[in-house]
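Supplementary Note 3. Input sequence used for the single-chain structure prediction.
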Amino acid sequence: MKKRIVLTGGGTAGHVTPNIALIPELQNQGYEIHYIGSYQGMERRLIEDQNIPYYGIASGKLRRYIDIKNLSDPFKVVKGLGQALHLMGKIKPDVVFSKGGFVSVPVVLAAKMRRIPCVIHESDMTPGLANKICIPCAVRVCTNFPETMKHLPADKAVLTGSPIRQELFEGDRKKGLKFCDFKKKKPVLMIMGGSLGAAAVNSAVRSILPKLLHEFQVIHLCGKDKLDSSLEGVKGYVQYEYIKEELRDLIAAADVLISRAGANAICEILALRKPNILIPLPAASSRGDQILNAASFEKSGYSVVIQEEELTDEKLYETVLSVYEDREKYIRQMEKSQLNNSIEKIVGLINEARSRNRRLKKK
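The predicted structure, written as discrete structure tokens, is reproduced below.
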């Protein structure tokens, strides 16, 4: 009998790329894969590029603060639930895997109503609102951090780490240098602000760019609509809104990374053993999850953290130099990490949930 799975998650690349990382192994194990996301979220393009059937549903954000959209978005969630219930009846999946984001809420609720087992993944140190709603409906909750376990039901929580796209491990430093027209012997600093970019990080890097270029060649992934036309053609500096196929080669070329502290991004950095500086999204602009993520990595010796409120030109410059000088120390520490084989662990939990549900149906 054909095995079927529905994947869901969306809103940011961090809610989609771990699902993409699971696809090859799920296909190897004979799963027919379907994806439910929002109508026009970034997940649609990313998933359709994988030649996976994609279904868009209505999605509303559930906020903890006052906003006029709080009046309309609950109706979108209800509409999305109806659409998800219909799709569950149409697709008839054996299991659902959710990576989170608000589009996942109606999908997980529909799975529970259809008695379809659901495995979910919580990337951050503490569960976000979407996953808090979904956790009671899940049979297993995968986590990235040991500290997260205390926030979850003991009988559901499993420390797995985050699924890492296997192609990231296939990066070629020489190809990355060639793509950027960089020299082989001069070290490379890479800045990644997340799929939406990071204005404060972009500004800080560009303000010290002349000094950085004395020591490094610089790759700057600055986010959509955040290119600086005045810096086009500056020798040793390249900027891109977003990089897809070449990303693995650019990361392979990098000696030091500067990044936000989204859970999936830092788990990729850890897996690739890249010395790094984390500048988490401040609490005023988030629920503080990136601050907790970064603190965990700093405590483990994987990263150096600069809070955005404390970010100055001089501090950033001196930290970049320090991390590069001590890069071997950070690499050795990251090599001790226990967060390995995440794809194998998560697919194992998916298979377990499917098999248990099939046994229950036979009784």
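The longest helix spans residues 342-362. The mean pLDDT is 91.
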